[in-house]
Predict the 3D structure of the following.
Amino acid sequence: MKVNEIIDGDYAIIDVRAPGEYQRGSIPGAVNIPLFDDEERALIGTLYKKEGTGEAKKRGIEVVSQKLADIYRKIGDVERKGKEIVVFCARGGMRSGSLVQLLSSLGHRVHQLEGGYKQYRRYVLESLDDLIGSKRVVVIHGNTGSGKTELLKMLQGRGFPSVDLEDMANSRGSIFGTVGLGASRYQKAFEALLFDRLRGVEKDYIIVESESPRLGRVYLPNKLVEGMKAGVHILVECSLEKRVRRIVDEYAGLRGDDVLEEIRDSIIRLKGELGKRKTDTLLALLDLNDYDQIVRILLEEHYDPKYDYSEKRYDFSLKLRSDNLEECAKNIVEFLEG
């Protein structure tokens, strides 16, 4: 089965690659049921290079045979959702092919993705620029804490084509960007999510939040960066007090020893920019749990100066207050529909 048939259809997709391969990038919605774990895959790869295909196959069969019952049970759980199954591996080779043959012999309706993940990845890269180029880009700008991400979500809830790049990257796009979120996504995973979102947009424009070309550890496609620069620009402004409250509230539910250590490490990394005295002050405030003052200092002395410098290059088609997000979203809707 070809890539376009998979993404245009309604199938249960199973990725049989190792967990590390899956983490770096997969087809959105695919369930990972690996035949080998990362260590087993590395071992079999070494056998293939040093001793040839025969020894690698032999070891592969030994490994899979010990967990075949568990693999079959997991596939059954997926199959009970009532959809035909598509299985893929890295290149549409032995891992997925062997499993498809076995399942087919047992009477299951199952397909193999031609070319595997490599072919899917090629399809995404070939299609992404065309998808981006077909859309005007509406960019929402505003200082940290002005509610840009919340506005994107509100607009999407009302049927507008918001594209939450930070959510796709699993990073808020700053030195504190992954606090409480875990690791940011890999480039391949990010681009797959972006492709999946854009192909579902029927309007001739998309709405994004202003971002730098790098977001966490991923880079935005050049075509998207260009589209954002040439797009329609909306500025939302908000009082400092409201911004402080929003940021503190956002992080309030994330507090714990691990999160506090992440915040501490992020503050320490700002030492070169803010200086030792200010960094020590922030760390002392963290020990006192004075999050309001920490956020206020960071906004006034780190985020706002950077933002004010970068945003001077744009001419804004619309300027709004975002202290009241419902009212702000309503005004953006009227602008978009006008």
In short: Residues 127 and 195 are 8 Å apart (CA to CA).
